[in-house]
């Protein structure tokens, strides 16, 4: 009887060993993995829209942070943007509002108490955020006045920008499709434009060349260079109707009166 | 020895009966099995409840997507020891062609959208990410705008008033209703958003995105027409007649007197005065001389 029970126990233990139950503790379950599905590496996120990061895990149960059950195969994801802890995620998507510029988003699986797994399980993706559009070639054109126009000393220049957003200088370098406009008058810097309002010009008489150039946040030209030029001729009092300009006639009158004064003085002297 | 029980071999009738019973039982089991498998394998379905197809997402807000799923259980993919089942998985969300969400719960979610037309598509997938067979997905088209979702855009010029006499530079002020001004930067057209064009006669002299008065300078003298109109992001004029306005004004010179004119005129007056004084003095002297000679000149 004892021998039978002993044989049964041995058989059960043998079956358990064969089925791998003890080995699950010895070898450990398959290691958790983490991967970023979206966005794709180095993608440009346009229009300043928030970045939706979609990730996948395997052999890991995502749980709400702080639920108190800490195990090596469950927990949440720490989200680090440029090496700064920004958010925690317990679902497979996290939406991040990021400023313009290049960013590195790094995800890390952590247990419920926030400690990293051993070995560390991370995944990262680099993105570029811009307030401009994600694609498209920047363009610049002058709407008014027309090329070769005759304008007054006081005038305005209206322009149009496409696929490019005007922002204040000093933003991060290398951001596509955002920057400002450098306005040049006769090849000399004239103004920096950071919004779409028309440019007010106050020019001396004569021919002038106004050039607008799209530049990046550091003030450098785009590649390829995007400019628009305009040649105008400035004439004072343009558009003003003067019904009768007596200036030349008054000069003649002055001359005649002057001669009359001289004649009167001469006759006076002669009379004495 | 125990007596042997009678067997079917010994009784063919009993054997036939037991075979029939076994067949009936088997058929019953098969029927139950088939009916229950039909219930379990009911096809998953997915419906987008909100927004409605073609809805306008106004005022630059995010779109809230609400959806319903039946015969499909949402689970987190990649769980420990996960064994996928046919009617279990998660959902992928696409905005146009971009993959933007992985949903593990049937809950409404919010999507930021830029101006223009967009398609939102939700697709059910198995735990391992493979598509269901047949594919189960639903999509909806929306149009996003920074403008309001109702009301016809209107523009009215407040100043200058009709036939007003002005100088060569004036401020044009206007009131805009049911329309939002946005920077034109090549983005798609969207309802009730765009910018303002200012015209002198038929020439567009300015494109602005400001609600404040705009200064127009160097206006030509005489009777002219100032215009303002609302246009789409691509500069096409709105078809709505109340989205544009014109006003006739009279531009007069504030001062067309130049410095040479003033100086020449002043000098002329001075010289004329001197000449008159000299002539009068000469006449006075002549009269005095005549009196001194006894009345004869």
List the topology elements.
The complex is a heterodimer of chains A (272) and B (297).
Chain A: H1 2-19, H2 21-27, E1 33-38, E2 43-45, E3 51-58, E4 61-62, E5 74-81, E6 84-89, E7 93-96, E8 101-110, E9 122-129, E10 139-144, E11 149-151, E12 154-162, E13 165-166, E14 178-185, E15 188-193, E16 199-202, E17 206-215, E18 227-234, H3 247-271
Chain B: H1 12-40, E1 45-50, E2 55-57, E3 63-70, E4 73-74, E5 88-95, E6 98-103, E7 109-111, E8 116-126, E9 137-144, E10 154-159, E11 164-166, E12 170-177, E13 180-181, E14 193-200, E15 203-208, E16 214-216, E17 222-231, E18 244-251, H2 259-292
Parallel strand pairs in B: 2-9, 4-5, 11-18, 13-14
Antiparallel strand pairs in B: 1-3, 3-7, 5-6, 5-8, 8-9, 10-12, 12-16, 14-15, 14-17, 17-18
Explain this structure to me?
The complex is a heterodimer of chains A (272) and B (297). By secondary structure, chain A is α+β, with helices and mostly antiparallel strands. Chain A folds into three domains: 29 residues; 99 residues, Immunoglobulin-like (Sandwich), CATH 2.60.40.10; 96 residues, Immunoglobulin-like. Chain A is 18% helix and 41% strand. Chain A contains three helices and 18 strands. In chain A, the strands form four sheets. In chain A, strands 2, 4, 5, 6, 8 and 9 form a six-stranded mixed beta sheet that branches. The termini of chain A are far apart. In chain B, the strands form four sheets. In chain B, strands 2, 4, 5, 6, 8 and 9 form a six-stranded mixed beta sheet that branches. Chain B has two helices and 18 strands. With 297 residues, chain B is an alpha+beta fold. Chain B has three domains: 100 residues, Immunoglobulin-like (Sandwich), CATH 2.60.40; 98 residues, Immunoglobulins (Immunoglobulin-like); 39 residues. The chains are: A alpha+beta (272), B alpha+beta (297). The interface between A and B is large, with 70 and 61 residues.
């Amino acid at each position: 009887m004892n021998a039978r029970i002993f044989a049964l126990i041995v058989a059960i233990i043998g079956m358990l060993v064969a089925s791998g139950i003890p080995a699950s503790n010895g070898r450990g379950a398959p290691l958790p993995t983490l991967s970023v599905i979206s966005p794709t590496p180095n993608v440009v996120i346009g229009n300043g829209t928030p970045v939706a990061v979609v990730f996948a895990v395997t052999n890991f149960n995502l749980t709400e942070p702080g639920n108190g059950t800490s195990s090596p195969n469950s927990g949440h994801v720490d989200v680090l943007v440029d090496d700064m802890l920004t958010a925690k995620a317990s679902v497979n998507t996290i939406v991040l509002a990021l400023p313009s510029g290049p960013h590195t988003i790094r995800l890390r699986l952590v247990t419920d108490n926030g400690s990293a797994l051993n070995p560390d399980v991370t995944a990262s993706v680099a993105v570029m955020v811009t307030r401009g559009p994600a694609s498209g070639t920047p363009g610049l054109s002058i709407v008014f006045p027309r090329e070769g126009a005759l304008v007054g000393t006081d005038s305005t220049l209206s322009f149009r920008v496409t696929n490019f957003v005007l922002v204040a200088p000093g933003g991060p370098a290398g951001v596509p499709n955002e920057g400002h406009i450098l306005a040049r008058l006769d090849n000399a810097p004239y103004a920096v434009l950071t919004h779409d309002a028309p440019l007010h010009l106050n020019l001396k008489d004569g021919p002038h060349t106004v050039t607008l150039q799209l530049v990046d946040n550091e003030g450098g030209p785009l590649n390829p260079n995007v400019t628009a030029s305009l040649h105008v001729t400035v004439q004072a009092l343009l558009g003003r109707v003067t019904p009768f300009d007596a200036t030349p006639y008054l000069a003649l009158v002055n001359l005649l009166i002057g001669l009359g004064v001289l004649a009167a003085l001469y006759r006076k002297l002669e009379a004495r | 020895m125990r007596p042997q029980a009678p067997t079917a071999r010994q009784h063919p009738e009993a054997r036939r009966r037991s075979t029939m019973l076994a067949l009936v039982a088997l058929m019953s089991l098969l029927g139950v099995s088939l009916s229950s498998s039909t219930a379990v394998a009911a096809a998953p379905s997915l419906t987008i409840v909100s927004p409605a197809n073609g809805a306008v997402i106004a005022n630059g807000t995010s779109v809230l997507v609400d959806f319903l799923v039946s015969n499909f259980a949402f689970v987190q993919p990649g769980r420990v020891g996960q064994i996928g089942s046919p009617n279990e998985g998660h959902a992928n969300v696409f905005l146009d062609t971009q993959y933007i969400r992985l949903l593990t719960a049937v809950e409404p979610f919010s999507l930021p959208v830029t101006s223009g037309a967009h398609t939102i598509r939700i697709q059910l997938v198995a735990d391992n990410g493979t598509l269901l067979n047949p594919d189960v997905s639903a999509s909806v088209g929306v149009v996003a705008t920074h403008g309001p979702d109702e009301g016809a855009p209107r523009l009215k010029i407040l100043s200058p008033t009709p036939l007003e006499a002005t100088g060569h530079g004036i401020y044009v002020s206007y009131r805009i209703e049911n329309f939002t001004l946005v920077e034109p930067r090549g983005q798609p057209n969207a309802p009730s958003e765009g910018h303002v064009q200012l015209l002198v006669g038929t020439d567009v002299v300015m494109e602005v995105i400001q609600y404040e008065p705009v200064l127009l300078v160097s206006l030509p003298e005489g009777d002219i027409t100032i215009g303002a109109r609302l246009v789409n992001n691509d500069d096409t004029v709105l078809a709505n007649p109340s989205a544009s306005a014109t006003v006739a004004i009279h531009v007069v010179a504030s001062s067309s007197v130049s410095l040479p004119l003033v100086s020449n005129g002043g000098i002329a007056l001075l010289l004329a005065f001197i000449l008159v004084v000299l002539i009068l003095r000469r006449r006075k002297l002549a009269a005095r001389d005549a009196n001194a000679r006894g009345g004869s000149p």
